[in-house]
Every structure is written in C-alpha cells, then in structure tokens.
Design a protein that fits this description.
The chain is of the alpha+beta class. The chain has a single domain (21-140), classed as Cytidine Deaminase, domain 2. It has helices at 28-40, 79-88, 109-118, and strands at 2-5, 11-14, 49-55, 61-69, 93-99, 125-132, 138-140. Strands 4-3-5-6-7 form a 5-stranded mixed beta sheet, sandwiched between helices. Strands 1-2 form a two-stranded antiparallel ribbon. Strand 6 (125-132) and strand 7 (138-140) form a beta hairpin. The chain is globular and about 35 Å long. The termini are far apart.
C-alpha cells in the first residue's frame, strides 16, 4: 500500500491492485486450496496471519488483503481495517481466512469472537471464516453451521 500526502497535510491510503489470480469461489474447499497455494506457502507453519478475501456478487475474488501477522499462537485483528478494505473495493461479500501453525483446525474463542464482530460489518455479507493448516485439513465456520 502506498501512502500519499495531500495538500491538507493528511495521509490518504491508496489501494494497490491485487496480484493474486482472479477465481470464482464455489465452496470452502476451493478457497482453502486457493489460499494455501497463493498466500501461505511455507509460512503456514511459522506464524499466524489473517487475510480477508473480498468478492463481488458473483463470488469472484476482487481483492485479497492481509489484515495481520502475529506470532506462533495468535494474531490481532483490527476490525476498522477490515471495514476500510471492504469499502475500498466495494465488496459485496468477504471471507476471513487465517492459519493455525499448530495444525489444530479447532477455532479458538478469539476466532469465534472476531467472526461475530465481522458479521456486523456494514451491508457486506460475511460468507465464511476458514482456518487453514498444513496439509489438506481446514475448518469452515459456514460448513459447521457457525455462520
């Protein structure tokens, strides 16, 4: 993200286009595989990080933004940044995606809390919150009836 200084001495954030390939998401399995291939790579086992995938009305990916990167057992999410990025790309819906380096797919209480907060974001629908781990496993809040 580039920062430009305006004439009024305030900073304006300008969204750069994503370099991620566009894709149509039809299931939690599709998105988990997409994120593992294009985002996490070897870092999935090192530290926890949270991404948000913004989509249009046809469930095509419009933008993928990294919200945070933490340590080996957690990361902090700023819901205001989530809202800012959602409005920047005029998203119709979004999916939260983060990893658990431990390999445990079970959501923590913090994972549940951020999902509940994200449900109240403007008029933009939270479709899912997916936890990815090394290998083929993942956890989908939507698949488990938690959204």
């Amino acid at each position: 993200m580039k920062i430009y200084k305006s004439n009024a001495t305030k900073f304006k954030l300008v969204k750069e286009p994503t370099t991620m390939p566009k894709a149509k998401i039809t299931s939690s399995k599709d998105l988990a595989a997409y994120m593992k291939e294009y985002v996490y790579e070897e870092d999935i086992e090192v530290y926890e990080s949270m991404f948000v995938v913004f989509m249009n009305r046809s469930n095509n990916i419009e933008s993928v933004q990294k919200l945070s990167q933490g340590g080996t057992s957690g990361t902090v999410i700023d819901v205001k940044l989530l809202g800012k990025y959602a409005l920047d790309c005029l998203a119709s819906s979004f999916i939260l995606v983060h990893n658990h380096p431990s390999g445990n797919t079970s959501p923590s209480q913090a994972d549940i809390n951020i999902t509940q907060k994200a449900l109240q974001l403007f008029d933009i629908m939270l479709l899912d919150h997916i936890i990815v781990v090394p290998g083929e496993s993942y956890y989908s809040f939507a698949d488990e009836g938690m959204i």
